[in-house]
Amino acid sequence: SATYLDDFAKCPWRFFAKRFLQLKEEPEEDLEIDPRRRGSLSHRLLEESFARLIENFFSRGNFPAPDDTRAALEAAFARLRDEALAEGSRVPRVLLADQLERLRGTAQALLEQEQAAWSEAPARLIPRHLEWGFGRGGRPPLTLDLPGGPSLPLTGAVDRIDVSEDEGRFLLIDYKTSKTSDLAREIREGLSLQLWIYLRAVRRLLYPRAEALGGLYWDLKETKKDQGMARREAIQDYLKKKPTAQAKSFLKDEDFEALEARLEAAAIDILQRILRGDFSLTPAQCLGPRCEYREICRYDDKPRN
Q1: Cα separations (Å) of 2 from 22, 50, 138?
Q2: What local confidence, expressed as pLDDT, does residue 25 receive?
Q3: CA nearest neighbour of 51 among 22, 85, 81, 75
Q4: Which residue, among 132, 206, 197, has the nearest Cα to 167 in the 3D structure?
Q5: pTM for this entry
Q6: To 5 degrees, how large is the angle CA 285–CA 291–CA 293?
Q7: Going by DSSP bridges, is the β-strand pair 250-251/224-231 parallel, antiparallel, or unpaired?
Q8: Residue-range domain boundaries for the chain
C-alpha cells in the first residue's frame, strides 16, 4: 500500500519489523485515548459529517449554511460518542467523554474553516468522494512498472477528493492527527510518497481528463492545510488566501512536474529494494524515542567521538 512505501522510505528495518514480522508494541497504561484510536475517531467524525453534507447538499448542487454544517457534525458526533462510550476503554468514562468533546471541538473548527472557504474563496471545490479506495472494494489497483521487471499493484484509500464545480479539476485531502510541519520537506526528499501515489491513482482510475491541483494534508491538531504538494497558480482561486512563493507546498507547474518525476523514481527504487529483501538498518529518518521498535534495533544516530 501507499503507506508501506512511506514506512520503507524512512527506515527499511522498521518497515520489516512492522510489516513483515508484524511486531506490535504493548500499549502503555494511560489516561488518554490511544493515539491510533484518536486518529480513527477523528477520521470517522469528519467522514460521517461530510457524508451527510454530500448526501443532503453537495449531491443536489447546493452548499450548506453554517447551521446545516453544525447539524451534520452534531448528528455524526452523537452516534460516534455513544458507540465509543459503549465499547469501553482503559480511560475512565468521565475522562473519555471529555476527550471526545475535545475531538468534537476540533472537528467544528475544521468545518468552520471549510464553511468560510466555500463562502469567501473566488471559486469553489466541492467534497465529492470520501475514503475513495483503489485495489479494494472491486476497484482495480494502481500499477507501477519496474524497469526490466514486473508491474506491481499498489493499494490505498484517499480520505477526501474535492472537485471543481465543472469537474475539470480535483484536489486530494488527507487527514493527519500526527505532526505535519515537516511533510512538505519529506515529500521533496522522497520520504513521503503517499500523496503522489494517491494523485496518480485518481488521475488514472477516476478523473483521467481532469487537472490535478495536487494534494494537501489537513492537520487535525493545528487546524491548517499548508503541507503537501500543489500547483500554486491553479489552486489559488480555490483558497481564501493566495499562497506565496515561500510556501514550500505550493509549486510552479514545472517544479510540480519535476517533483512527480523524482517521487516516481523514489517509489521504483523502494519497490526494487523490497523485492531484493534489502531491509538494512540505514534509516533516512530515525524516529528515535518515538519509534516503537527502538528497544530492538538499538540504532544510535548520535555522532561518535
Answers
A1: 17, 24, 18
A2: 62
A3: 75
A4: 206
A5: 0.87
A6: 115
A7: parallel
A8: 2-276
Give the domain 2-276 fold: Lambda Exonuclease; Chain A (3.90.320)
Q: What is the mean pLDDT of residues 63-80?
A: 95
Give the ranges where 252-297 is alpha helix by DSSP (H).
Answer: 253-276, 294-297
Residue type, 291: C
Give every CB contact of residue 130 below 8 A, 6+ residues apart in sequence.
Answer: 47, 50, 51, 54, 159, 160
Q: What is the pLDDT of residues 135-178, one digit of tens each?
A: 988 899 999 999 987 899 999 999 999 999 999 999 999 998 87
Contact indicator for 107, 73 with CB cutoff of 8 Å: yes
Classify residue 105 as exposed, middle or buried by CB count within 10 Å of its CB (0-12, 13-18, 19+): exposed
3-state SS, residue 173: strand
Cell of 184: 512538505
- How far is the CA of 254 from the CAs of 10, 58, 84, 258, 261, in angstroms? 26, 33, 47, 6, 11
**Nearest-angstrom CA–CA distance, 184 and 228:** 5
Nearest-10 crossing angle of helices 253-276, 194-205: 100
